[in-house]
Amino acid sequence: MKITPLEFLTAVYMNDQLPLQARMKAAIEAAQYVHPKLAMVGVAHANGDLGTMLERAIAASAKAREPLKMIEAQAKPTNGHSLSPTDVSSKPLRRRA
Hints:
Blueprint lengths: L4 H10 L5 H15 L15 H15 L33
Helix pairs in contact: 1-2
């Protein structure tokens, strides 16, 4: 009599005479065939034909790959003072309770 691989794995993990490690491994392998896998599913709403949607997606991808513009600015002193690293307290920071 032939048994399926799932039936064999089930027989292994149900057998109390086998070591726990072997039973656990068989249970892990069998689980993917017994329990459904959780998955994400994307839903697309068609606004036109597939070609139009693909062209829009390609254009959006190209735009996302463009380098970001750098903000160029100079630091200005406030109230006639400028902060330097030596002006900042040398005390270590404390955690708030």
